[in-house]
Amino acid sequence: YGTSRFNDYGHLTIGEVDVTHLAEKYGTPLYIYDVADIRQRAHDFKKAFETENVSYQVAYASKAFSCVAMFQLADELGLSLDVCSGGELYTALEAGFPVERIHFHGNNKTPDELEMAVEKQIGCIVVDNFTELTWLMAITEANKQSVDVLIRITPGVEAHTHEYISTGQEDSKFGFDLNSQQATKAIQMIMAHDHVKLLGVHSHIGSQIFKTEGFEHTVKEIYKSLSFWKEELDYEPDVLNVGGGFGIRYSTHDEPLPLGKYIEKTVQAAKQEADSRGMKVPEIWIEPGRAMVGEAGTTMYSIGSRKEIPTLRTYLSVDGGMTDNIRPALYQAEYEAVVANKGNEPEEELVSIAGRCCESGDMLIWDLKIPHTVPGDLLAVSSTGAYGYAMASNYNRMLRPAVVFVEDGHHECVIEREQYEDLVRKESRYSRINPVLK
Ligand code: LLP
Hints:
Layout: E1 5-6, E2 12-14, E3 17-18, H1 19-26, E4 30-34, H2 35-52, E5 56-61, H3 68-76, E6 80-83, H4 86-94, E7 102-104, H5 111-119, E8 124-127, H6 130-143, E9 147-154, E10 157-161, E11 163-166, E12 176-177, H7 182-191, E13 196-202, E14 206-209, H8 213-233, E15 239-241, H9 259-276, E16 283-286, H10 290-293, E17 297-309, E18 313-318, H11 327-331, E19 337-339, E20 349-354, E21 363-370, E22 378-382, E23 402-407, E24 410-415, H12 420-424
Parallel strand pairs: 4-23, 5-6, 5-16, 6-7, 7-8, 8-9, 9-12, 9-13, 10-14, 13-15, 15-16, 18-20
Antiparallel strand pairs: 1-2, 2-3, 4-17, 10-11, 17-18, 17-22, 19-22, 20-21, 23-24
């Protein structure tokens, strides 16, 4: 999908912009987003639904990367938006994202957040549990407003990368349990309520999934319950949301499917199940986060110090690390990188890339083959667009990097780099420090 390549000077370009210029202008570390890549992915998801001739919504799971500009882009691309906190909702509203296309998730939405969502009349709330349902009923009654909801169910399928496990029962903090009839009870409660309207059901089975079987199996599992609800409650959903989790390429070991493949197989499974049970085919909704922005993002670092342990390893340290990408430390996630200003030089040195936090676990890449580098060379780590900036922190009082969007030779900073002053902006001195004892 992406537009990144080396030019004749051996400089990496993304969106036809030489990234060494970006490093000079905006500093490092720097997150660079290839906007064309995001556009293409949104297009491919939508195209696949249109080919299957089914009503749909593609909701961008904003937890992967959210900011005002990203929400504007998602809107322009005709996407809906999955938000999972008041903060994401607030940012979407600030971006002017159409409220009717916002879906609100979370296993512990606060009453204030629910109130905000109801007041703003967002598209739907994905109801996760009885506590929240009760609050929502009270809020809508008090406000004399109505709200559409999906109920999140746990279908007992857990999918990750190449495998899925059908546990039958899921030990998860999210959603209503199917086996214990909790979901049935929730549906009955909603059907009997005047202000909370049941649009359909939602499930999310995992992340970084490389096969379609997990989704197909989930649809089949869900249909067992759907046909029971049709018989018992005369209820049929208008919407079936199968969540996100579509896998991307972090390294050459990963072989993701074309995005349309997941849609094709999932929709076909839903059609088949619906037809064989004499039910209508619902709208199919998905919620890709990683698959929308993951590969579009590249993080640029400046290389700094070098430590050589003879015969063992060479550590190259960069000017960022776990504060801008926690995924290697947290999930042992693997990334690949190139030296962005030395594309014409042979990859002759084996190094390991360390972050600069005071923590041994702050390693970004083990055993990377790159050209010989000197301090000041630029390292570009690919596929950092999802859960990178989104999970960034100020650990060690590091400053969050800037974010730039590039496309067709154009570059634009959409999030400024934090400054030292930002670190103490919310802080105050303690009034009981006694100057005499100091
Ligand atoms: N929908 C729901 C309800 C979710 O919980 C998630 C992710 C998504 C959609 C989007 O999943 P995606 O398409 O991005 O895989 N921090 C972790 C990922 C956590 C995902 C949580 N939920 C990571 O860096 O891998």
